[in-house]
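batch job 7 of whatever, protein = O-antigen ligase family protein
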Amino acid sequence: MVGIAVLGGCAAWSLITATARAGRPEGVLLAVLAVAAGYAGGRIAGGLAPVATSCAVAAGGLCLAVASPQTVPAPNTSAPPGGAGATAALLVLSTGALSCAAWATRARRPRIALHLLSAGTVVVGVLAGSGAGAAASCGVVLCALGSARARHRAGALAGLGFGTAAVAGLGVGLADGALPPGPASFLEDELSEHRVRLWHRALDLAASDPVLGAGPGRFEDFGTVSAASPVPDARPHSAVLQVAAEQGFIGLALLTAAYGWLLYVLWRSARSTQVVLTAGAALTAVAMLATVGNALSFTAVTVGAGLLGGIATAVPFGDEPPDDDAAAPEFVRDGRGG
């Protein structure tokens, strides 16, 4: 019920702001539908065949990451930052799905093989030219392996949430000029001056109308910072700043609530803590990528995030490696999770 309320609120608020500001809410509505459909599908398929479903999601994500012209730039071409972010996000989701499959199987050899395959996505990221994807996938692999020693899933999930908030805060601070000169200069060189200018423009739009924003899909009407720039200005390359600019701080609060809801259902999940924390790490990596890129503007990414969240919160119908009593909440230990 909480998820329905949060996602419904995101859809409803986009329609309200679109009506008030002559906006174009189709992108927001499609993203909400993609997450909801993916989550429902993941819950169903993940309950029936968690290992096979996770492997299928990983295979699909890898195929899209390395073969789709919409998400992977061709050699020697300049691609929009959003496309590169989508490639990285798909690699991360594939890594998380393979690691979840590894923890969902009881047999030792298949588990080792699946962990090795998940580590192989780091190599795929390097070969695909996605440094961010390789680095984020490596982080997910390390978190997945480290989850074997986790004792409290609540604390780990809270840490992931704080990490996402810190990355988002750094982006806002950079756009607002609040960071010290040294770190600000380094981040601007890494992210590009043009992107930081777009972020600054998004902050200005959010401040000009903090309640309703400029309207969904209308950043491009106000966001051009350089007519000669080869990078499209339709989006500010930050989900946080785009929502704040186009839907005000109420829209931003709803986006935050959607991420918080995912962490909440992971905490309540009846799946093993290893599966929960692995999925949480992958979804958090996607959230961090979305704070500095347009990853969530790609339907494949939002569907994949929903699928992984659904798989990690499904109620397994078959046997699964038992959870550590100290790591799982009491209602999960009592068999009332989900």
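notes: The chain has one domain: 2-69+80-318.
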